[in-house]
């Protein structure tokens, strides 16, 4: 009798907790994938790639020029005085440091341009996700890569819906601007 009473008591405690848990609706989204798949994101990435390729070509030319200077120096080194060797080595070192600084500056610039291009897209995505959350009763929507999700059933993945809604909403605005 006591055992059945305890069992009923425990069940009574678990039922409300189970009912509460079943009411909670949680989803997740892969924002990086969405960025790469929405039309506006594809256009931004294509523009950034053009910019990057242009800068990469510049860096490649500079690197090749420095490589040729270094090779020339190595061929002529034995014919130079110790003082001339030191001077040319210092010059090559300065040029290498300048090239490295240029590379780091361009890397920062590219990151800044990427942030500048993607920030408005992400802000629009957040707005759409808030709408999805409110209209469909989600209590929580997580970002897949930053939340530490290792596994979740695909039925909780809202990425495709985000992409569809984003393109619908922002294609309509593009057409009305023309």
Descriptors:
single chain, 178 residues, mainly alpha, two-stranded parallel ribbon, 6 helices, elongated, disordered N terminus
Tell how many strands the DSSP assignment holds.
2
- Helix and strand element order: HEHHHEHH
Largest sheet: 2 strands, parallel
- First and last CA, distance: 78 Å
Low-confidence stretches: 2-21
Quick overview of this protein structure:
This protein is mainly α and 178 residues long. It is built from six helices and two strands; from the N terminus they run αβαααβαα.
Topology of this protein?
Elements: H1 2-23, E1 26-29, H2 31-37, H3 39-76, H4 82-136, E2 140-143, H5 144-147, H6 159-177
Parallel strand pairs: 1-2
Helix pairs in contact: 2-3, 2-6, 3-4
Protein architecture, described:
It is a single chain. The protein is mostly helical and 178 residues long. It is built from six helices and two strands. The protein has a two-stranded parallel sheet with strand order 1-2.
């Amino acid at each position: 009798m006591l055992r059945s009473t305890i069992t009923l008591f425990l069940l009574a405690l678990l039922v409300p907790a189970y009912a509460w848990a079943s009411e909670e609706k949680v989803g997740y989204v892969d924002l990086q994938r969405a960025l790469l798949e929405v039309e506006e994101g594809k256009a931004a990435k294509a523009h950034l790639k053009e910019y990057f390729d242009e800068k990469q070509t510049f860096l490649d030319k500079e690197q090749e020029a420095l490589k040729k200077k270094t090779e020339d120096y190595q061929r002529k080194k034995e014919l130079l005085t110790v003082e001339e060797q030191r001077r040319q080595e210092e010059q090559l070192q300065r040029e290498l440091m300048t090239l490295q600084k240029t590379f780091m500056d361009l890397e920062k610039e590219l990151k800044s341009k990427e942030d500048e291009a993607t920030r408005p897209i992400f802000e629009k995505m957040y707005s759409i996700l808030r709408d999805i959350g409110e209209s469909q009763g989600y209590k929580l929507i997580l970002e897949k890569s930053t939340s530490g999700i290792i596994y979740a059933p695909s039925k909780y993945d809202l990425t495709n819906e985000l992409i569809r809604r984003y393109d619908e909403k922002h294609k309509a605005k593009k057409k009305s601007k023309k």
